[in-house]
Amino acid sequence: MSLRGKTVLLGVTGGIAAYKAVEVVSRLRKQGAAVRVIMTKNATEFVTPLTFETLANHPVVTDTFARPETWDVAHISLAKEADLCVVAPATANILAKLAMGLADDMLSTTLLATKAPLLVAPAMNTGMWTAEATKRNVEILRGRGVRFVGPEGGFLACGDTGAGRMSEPKEIVEAIEAILHASETLRGVKVMVTAGATREHMDPVRFLTNESSGKMGFAIAEAARDRGADVTLIKGWTTAHVPDGVKLVEVSSTQDLYDAVTALAPEMDAVIQAAAPADYRFRETSGQKIKKQKGEPLTFTLEETPDIAAAVGRGKRPGQVLVGFAAETEHLIEHAQKKLASKNLDFIVANDVSQPGAGFNVDTNIATFLSAEGENPRPLQSKRALAEDILDEVTRRLPGKDA
Ligand code: PMT
User: Fold this and answer.
1) Which helix (H) or strand (E) holds 382?
2) Do 126 and 58 have their domain in common?
3) Can you give the pLDDT at residue 241?
4) Same-domain status, 287 and 223
5) Which among 280, 176, 288, 194 has a CA at the least distance from the CA of 234?
6) pLDDT of 274 over the 50 cut
7) 313 close to ligand 1 (CB < 6 Angstrom)
8) Helix (H) or strand (E) holding 8
9) Both 212 and 70 in a single domain?
10) How confident is the model at residue 163, as a pLDDT?
């Protein structure tokens, strides 16, 4: 694959595998990519900046303050310029810094600032790779959408045998190609994602809602954005961090969500409804805070809210892809099948929200895709990884696209 027109920012951290990063630069340059290199201070103990400079045909940045004569771009410019950031080799230290958001040198500062996708190729001693702290950091990074290549098992420079060897340059470059290719797969495609909970007020200070954090919908919006889609994110009440680089529409009640979604749906190529709208609202809402009537039960009448997905399903145009979710606590497949049909969806993502690690307000999910083609159970995985699976399915169904 030609990488002409693409800029890859390579971060090299301090490990013996730094010498293999030289070949990564060489391969990327041969494929036409522009390569910018940032080395940590420790990395320069293993390979000289001159080696990378010669191959990248560009000055290497080694520290925020040192070598200002060769530093013609600020870290923010580097962060903006990159189509993809790669850290190879990635030490346990840089993984920990990335997970924590530490920014104490040129590389960590740049990586914190960038909006580009990030690929890391870990390389370290087996004990460090399998340490609880590293495992946790890897989990945090994967949850944020950071991609990993390797590490491989085998004989390590320290004499140990086990997982921790950096992947070969060929594999790292293949992973880079795959990500850059994926970043184009939804270019020009209009994707709408709904996320979060709605609120149905009984009075100005009390309401009916649910535990949706927005994490699932946000992961889909981010993954679609990273594939080049034009993303509209319609969000209700959420607690998770709202993604950048998307068109944001904020709503409160299910009626607001209905109005926003049905207004925009006709112009969308794909609509993915991960929000958890309230199914019922108070028939009457008090304009003032309802006072406590001592000893008296308080009775409300609830009425159904409009079914947004069903309305979008009725207006579905040829070629449009509609995806819904089903949040169930029992009879998952049976209930989800009914929703698939009644809402005229292309497929539904059924999650049993009573299972540990699935559903509301956690970073992972366990889902089964249901469609006319049958059932496709997905494993326990990060919401970002599930989002990628969902987008593969969407892409496959879009006219003229192929995941
Ligand atoms: O936000 P998180 O904390 O990450 O949690 C993720 C999640 C559990 C909210 C998500 O994975 C999920 O399951 N979302 C759907 C929640 C839901 O409302 O499910 P449901 O089975 O009640 O609804 C089925 C579908 O109809 C959903 O696509 C829903 O958006 C839609 N719906 C529901 C009610 C309504 N009035 N109109 C609708 O369109």
Assistant:
1) strand 381-382
2) yes
3) 85
4) yes
5) 194
6) yes
7) no
8) strand 7-12
9) no
10) 81
Structural domain span for residue 120 = 7-180
pLDDT tens by residue, 99-119: 999 999 999 999 999 989 999
* CATH code assigned at 241: 3.40.50.10300
Alpha carbon of 359 to ligand 1 centroid (Å): 10
Q: What is the pLDDT of residue 388?
A: 93
* C-beta separation of 178 from 206 below 8 A: no
Predicted confidence at residue 71, as pLDDT, reads 46
Lowest mean pLDDT across 25-29, 295-299, 322-326:
295-299
Q: Show which residues are catalytic.
A: 158
CA distance 350 to 328: 7
Angstrom distance (rounded) from CA 37 to CA 109: 14
User: Rounded to whole angstroms, how far apart are CA atoms 229 and 233?
Assistant: 12
Which residue type, as a one-letter code, is found at position 131? Answer: A
Q: How far apart are CA 375 and CA 314, in angstroms?
A: 24
User: pLDDT of 324-365, one tens digit each?
Assistant: 999 999 999 999 999 999 999 999 999 999 999 999 999 999
**Domain closes at, from 180, 207, 241:** 180
Residue 175's pLDDT is 94
Count of domains forming the chain: 2
Q: Is the CB of 235 under 6 A from ligand 1?
A: no
325 Cα to the center of ligand 1, angstroms:
5
Does the residue 77 lie in any domain? yes
Distances in Å between the alpha carbon of 342 and those of 191, 326, 347?
A: 22, 12, 12
Same domain, 217 and 174: no
DSSP E strands, 215-346 = 230-235, 247-250, 270-273, 280-282, 302-304, 321-328
Q: Say how far apart CA 109 and CA 98 lie, in whole Å.
A: 10
**From 262, 325, 337, mutation site for ligand 1 pocket: most ligand atoms within 8 A of C-beta:** 325
Whether 185 is in a domain gets the answer no
The CB of 361 under 6 Å from ligand 1? The reply is: yes
Between 386 and 243, residue with greater pLDDT: 386
Task: Report whether pLDDT(72) > 50.
Answer: no
Answer yes or no: do 126 and 202 share one domain.
Answer: no
Q: What was the pLDDT predicted at 232?
A: 98
